[in-house]
Structures are given as C-alpha cells and as structure tokens.
Recover the amino acids of this structure.
DNA sequence: CAACATTATGACACCGGTGTCAGATGGAGG
DNA sequence: CCTCCATCTGACACCGGTGTCATAATGTTG
C-alpha cells in the first residue's frame, strides 16, 4: 500500500471502505460496530502497522495513561551512583505501572534545586509519584502548592501536612523496634545508632525512635553521644563509625538507618580490628542486594519494595479516579544473616 | 481569577487582552511579538500557573521530546532484582535525556515475550533505546522490522545486522584482553572463563574472545572444559564455579563475564576453602557498586556508564535529526582491587 | 503625498483522534 | 402499508495548541 509517513485512521478508513469514525470505534472494540466490519478494520490496521496516535487520543480524552516518577537523590556530589534501594523501588513501580496499563516517565530530581513537577500541568502524566528518603521536608510548601493545584500525587516516606492519605511507607518505627529486639535477645549492652536522629529525615527519625523506645522500655538508655549522624551513603556511614571509634565510645551493638550506612560501618569496624558479630553486632535497613554479598552478610530490616511499588501506583490511580485512599504502612521484616 | 479546570492559552489571551495566537508566540519567545506584550503574557501565564499542553503541542508539531527506554532483563525467575549494571545505565541515560531536554519513558521487557516497541508508532516517543546484555539476538527479525518501519532506535551491546551505526557498546574484546593481560602479569598458569562462550550473547562472547586470544598469543590454551556457562546472576556464577570445582578442574585464575557472576564465584570459592587471590585470582566485568563492598574487593573491568548513557542518547537524537551517526566503542578500564 | 518596507497582531486551517447526534437500513408488529 | 425500534454508520464539532496568511499600524523614502 502507501508507505509514505505513518498511517492514520483515515488511511484505514479508506482501505476498509468505511468512515474514519467507524475505524475509531472498531479499533476500540465498541459494541456499536458490526462484527464483520470490525474484523475488516483490524485486518487493514494490522497490515498498515497502524497505531493510535497517543497525542491525539490523549488530547481528546484529557488523560495520558502515564504516570511520572520523581526520584529525589541524596545530595552526594557523586552523580553516577544512586541508592540501590530506590532503584529497586523504581523497578517495582515500573512493573506495577505496566501491569495497570500505564506508562512511566522517570526523572531524577536534586533536592537542592527546584523540582520539575509540571508533568501533570502539561498533561504529560495523570499523576506523580515522589520517591526519596523523605528528606524533602523543606519542600512542604511545594507539596502544599501541588495540593492547591489539585495535582494528583503520592509520596514514599515523606508525610504531607494535613493529609494522611498521600503517603505510602514502611513501618519504620516498627522496623527500628525489630532491630532493637533482635539485639536485645543477644544480650548486647551498649548500643549506638547511626543515621539521622533529627526529624529532618522523617524515615530515619522513625527508625531511630522505634529503636530507642524499645531500648528504653528495657531500661537501656541511648544518650546523645551514642548517636552519630550520617546520610545514606557508604562513605558517610564509614566516617560516622570512625568518629565514634575515635571518640572512644564503647559499643557492642550498632543499628544503621540504612544498608549503605551499615556497609560503611562494617568497613570502619574491620579496619579497627573489631570482629562482627563477635565484638559488635550490626543491623542495617532496606535489604539491598549488596547486603547479602558483603562479608559478614548483613542482618537487616527488609522493606517490601514490590508491595510498596504496587501500593504507590494503586493509591495514585485511585486518587486519580477520585476514590478515597487510606494511608498505607507496610510491615517490615527482619532478615537475619551473619552480622547480628 | 478562575480556578475551574486548568488554564489554556485562550484564558491567558483573555486576561492579557491579546489573541490566542499571540499568546502562543509570546510564550515561545518568538521575535515577532512585542517586548511589552510578551512581558504581559508571561505575567498572566505565571499567575494562572499555565503550562503548555504537551499533547496538543506534540500533536501539532509531530514530535514528543520524549525517548523510550526498553530494558531487557535476564530471564531469571526472580522479578524483583535487576542487574545493577543496567540500573546504573538507566541512571545515566535518564540524566543524559534531562540534559538534552527530553523526557524518558521506561519500560521493562522480558526477552522471552514479545516486546512492546510501539512507543514511536504511537507518537509517544521520538526514538527508542534498547538496553540488555545483547542476548536478544533471536529478535534480529524484530530489529529488522523496526528498521523497515523507519523507527529510530539505538542498541546497547547488540549488533543490528547490516547496520554498524545503531550500536553503542563497550569494547568487550579489549576488556577481555585487559583481564587476560593482568592475570598473565601475575604468572597465573591455569585459566577458566565463566560466562557464555557461544555467540548467543554477543557481549559475553566478545569478552571471551578477547580473553582467549590474549592467552593463546602467549601459548596458553583455554580448552572447552575450562569454560563454564552462566547467565549474569550471582546464582548462576555460584553454580558454574561449583561444577568446575566438582569436576576437579584445576585453575588459579578466573575471569567472569560479569561482576554478578564473579560475586557468585567468590562465594563458591570461599565455601571450597580456596583463598582469593592466593589460590585463585578473580576478575569480573562491569564494576557495579557491590564489587567494591565485597570481600575480597573485586578486581574488575569497568564500563563507563556515564559516557555510555550520553552516547546512546546523543546518537539517538542525531539519528532522529537525520544526521549520520558512527558506531561507538567505549574503552574499558581495569580497576585493580584485592581479588586479582 | 504616494509607495513601500517593517513590525505586530488576529483569523483560521490543521494535527489525529473521540464523542455526540442524526440518519439509513431492515425486521417486527398492527 | 405504515409505525416503531434496534442496529449500524457517517458527518461534524471538539480537544489545545502551532504555523501560515492577511491585515492593521507605523515608519521611511523619493
């Protein structure tokens, strides 16, 4: 036939001997169109390798069957490495989208800059998923702006002031508790926490609270000096641990707010000649792939990323459909390996 | 003003007291429009939080400023884990797209099923990036179909019959050579290769050839029995190594076609009581994050993913613009750590 | 002052679908 | 034979921009 340019529904109409309207209906399997006609139209469409023009279709129907994912990175200088945990989430979100027949637009955002969250305004996406370690609290005003514009979005980790339903997250408090309980069972006596014990990062803070509260309930204190700050990188965990050791803090149990931090801690401990888990038991959080490779294999609190991705996508789609959504807390799970 | 629904250029026109045509021109900074008018239009647009409707715009201009990434996974049963190397690539591709002002649609494809490569046909993307370990050779016919439809695409790793310009890849042959040379320098005498020495996976095969050819040039053979097949997973590398050991193959140097395979091999060697690098030197390929965490830290051949992402995006954009593109081979780099 | 170039703007067709409405057709029922 | 209804189809407006063309307003030159 005519191979000039891409085929349109008018071309199909021409070859099938029907009107363009009928082509449109036939291809969407409308019950209004005759069986024989439908067959013929599909036949021609296949021959011409016709695909509906999404731009035209979206324009008319005012929806894009596309979601946008904004991935917030920790502000490390290093551009190339992304936290594997988020990459896992990305994977499960992509899959969840595909399963629902949605496409996914991915973009990386730096927390330090202004975000590009205009995917909905420009009709490129029906809704937005915000993914990060929740440390975009400073951007609460941006979130409120999204709300006021009636932009549909859901967040991982971070809470949105005044709204309980837009957040999907792991039960970080419960996860901290799991870690504390496991260490308590081993009769460890001197605990340290490495992460962020301020409420700057809501997720890390919840893990910290769950951990500390469980210890205090057993009469064990967690004084200021046994807490070290770190962002979620191996580097940062390494240095935080070194400074604890340099300050002669005694400890036989270490809870890191993320696996990357824990991996950095293991390195520092090994360098200091400490045996893990003999001298110090170490527990991480996330269960990234590297946790099982490293030696000693890392005991950690697992987040169910597959489920998380599904919940984010499902909640967002429900939000778009105008249904009410309830906030979602996913249960963490302790994965016991060698380090504790 | 009127907060009902999203603002259109007609709304802007109304409030700015000009025609819609002028709004469109003003917002795209056309030189045809008066400075004062432009200012006023921008002012109103900002107030109404106006964003150009991408569907309308794309429909009219017949381009989407969007690229699509098809990520082919190794056919492992496990859905949740993706090869970290590809996730790195995904990261750099995303960044490269953003830098060029393009959005990126991401989708995972299973090599075993039919792909969904209709992103271009449906005008959702201007071009497609295919990313995988090149083991989609069986799909050469699909690639040819894409070619015949005049779909713009570039591939990582895989070659496209009859076209040299659509592929960006690492110099895998050179990488295999680097590995062999490094091991030769250490006077290792008995070599094994774990990966895929058939040409099913073109990338692995090239690494194998570079490795073997360098050895043969030094008078060292690499007989069939010193080659074990594995796909790119830790699991697979582990089992391949175990079977080598079980068959009493003697070796003091191991080259794995990917880091995941190498990590699995390290595990098997450790279990067998072999010291690395004392008894066996191990070299991997890719330089994924886990390579530096694992103990002993893995010596490996690095692929420059940042550059790779940029080249893929740039080549694809040039292809779309109708410019000629030359094929691209990226130089690998040996990262020496503890394992060899 | 006529003739013409320059600048700024509006009217309008167009991109390729979707949804609504009117109308053609054919069979059933009175 | 006429009416009524169910079934199927085509004409047409519409989504919200972009690009072309015509035209008004202003300045420039002989």
């Amino acid at each position: 036939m005519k191979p000039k340019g891409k085929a349109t529904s008018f071309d199909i109409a021409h070859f099938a001997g029907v009107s363009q309207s009928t082509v449109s209906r036939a291809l969407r399997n409308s019950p209004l169109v005759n069986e024989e006609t439908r067959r013929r139209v599909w036949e021609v469409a296949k021959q011409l390798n016709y695909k509906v023009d999404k731009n035209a279709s979206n324009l008319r129907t005012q929806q894009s069957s596309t979601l946008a994912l904004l991935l917030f990175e920790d502000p490390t200088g290093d551009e190339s490495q992304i936290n594997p945990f988020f990459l896992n989430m990305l994977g499960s979100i992509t899959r969840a989208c595909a399963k629902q027949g949605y496409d996914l637009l991915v973009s990386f955002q730096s927390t330090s800059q202004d975000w590009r969250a205009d995917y909905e305004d420009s009709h490129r996406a029906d809704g937005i998923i915000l993914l990060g370690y929740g440390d975009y609290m400073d951007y609460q005003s941006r979130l409120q702006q999204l709300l006021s514009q009636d932009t549909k979005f859901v967040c991982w980790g971070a809470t949105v002031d005044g709204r309980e339903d837009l957040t999907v997250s792991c039960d970080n408090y419960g996860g901290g508790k799991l870690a504390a309980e496991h260490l308590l069972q081993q009769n460890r006596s001197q605990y340290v926490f490495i992460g962020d014990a301020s409420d700057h990062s809501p997720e890390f803070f919840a893990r910290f609270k769950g951990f500390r509260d469980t210890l205090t309930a057993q009469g064990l204190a967690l004084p200021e000096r046994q807490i070290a700050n770190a962002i979620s990188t191996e580097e940062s965990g390494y240095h935080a641990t070194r400074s604890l050791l340099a300050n002669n803090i005694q400890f036989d149990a270490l809870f890191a707010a993320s696996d990357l931090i824990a991996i950095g801690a293991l390195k520092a401990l090994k360098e200091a000649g400490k045996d893990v888990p003999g001298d110090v038991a170490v527990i991480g959080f996330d269960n990234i792939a590297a946790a099982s490779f490293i030696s000693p294999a890392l005991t950690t609190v697992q987040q169910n990323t597959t489920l998380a991705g599904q919940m984010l996508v499902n909640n967002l789609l429900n939000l778009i459909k105008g249904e009410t959504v309830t906030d979602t807390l996913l249960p963490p799970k302790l994965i016991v390996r060698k380090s504790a």
About this structure: Chain A touches chain B through 46 residues (CB under 8 Å). Residues 18-22, 25, 32-34, 37, 56, 58-62, 123 of chain A lie near DNA strand D (CB under 10 Å from a C1'). Residues 172-302 of chain A form a domain with the Rossmann fold fold (CATH 3.40.50.2300). The mean pLDDT of chain A is 90.
